[in-house]
Design brief:
Strand content: 35-45%
Oligomer: single chain
Number of strands: 7
CATH topology: Nuclear Transport Factor 2, Chain: A
Helix content: 25-40%
Structural class: alpha+beta
CATH class: Alpha Beta
Radius of gyration: 17 Å
CATH architecture: Roll
Largest sheet: 7 strands, mixed
Length: 219
């Protein structure tokens, strides 16, 4: 593995460890100053993502991440990194304590500036998910109409997040479909020297103008 690939993999791993541990000062170092984060519950500048993540962490919001394999495409001082990941969130759903697990990929636009790699845009890809009561004896009944409003790749995660007060984005990329195909084209454009916003999607999905964040409450 080249030095650049090693540094990028280390950066991706640091993101997860420092974010989940609440090590906010070091977490800020994995981003460039213009870094942008896309998530089901937040779309905006990295500095604001750090702030609202910290606020949620201090209120007891439980969102953890686990990583798998990484594939990195390098083009000079630019890179696209795809990393298998699992998001695990604990939340009350209709009064039942539940764990929601969502499997997907972190799709990262990275750049090396002044000798330092950093994230310019993180766009997760949501592939599949499930929800289970923490107590196996508990009974959980979901509203099928509400569940059906969200994409199949993260519908249970979105359901749980809306239950605790998040405003969830409903058109994030999944395993297949136009959304993820646009993301792949944007990644290819980035490696070829284009801007992130050159893709067809525009708006928040391009890391551009939209800025939304949910501010949940925790019982």
């Amino acid at each position: 593995m080249s030095d650049d690939r090693t540094l990028i993999r280390e950066l991706v791993e640091n993101w997860v460890v420092w974010r989940d541990a609440g090590d906010w000062e070091r977490f800020a170092t994995v981003w460039h100053d213009d870094g942008f984060m896309m998530a089901t519950w937040f779309q905006g500048p990295a500095r604001d993502f750090i702030r609202v993540s910290r606020e949620g962490f201090e209120r007891g919001v439980s969102i953890l991440h686990f990583l798998g394999g990484t594939s990195i495409d390098l083009a000079g001082n630019r890179a696209i990194s795809q990393t298998k990941m699992t998001i695990s969130q604990r939340a009350d759903v209709h009064g039942v304590s539940c764990d929601v697990v969502c499997t997907g990929r972190f799709y990262d636009f990275l750049e090396k500036r002044a000798g330092r790699w950093g994230i310019v845009l993180r766009q997760p890809i949501y592939e599949k998910d499930r929800v289970d009561p923490v107590d196996p004896a508990a009974t959980l009944a979901l509203d099928a109409d509400v569940l059906g409003r969200f994409p199949v790749g993260y519908r249970h995660l979105a359901y749980a997040q809306t239950q605790i007060g998040y405003d969830v984005k409903r058109d994030m990329p999944g395993l297949v479909g136009p959304g993820v195909e646009r993301l792949y084209r944007r990644g290819a454009d980035w490696l070829a020297g284009g801007e992130i916003g050159d893709g067809e999607s525009g708006g928040a999905e391009s890391g551009g103008v939209s800025h939304r964040a949910g501010f949940p409450t925790v019982d």
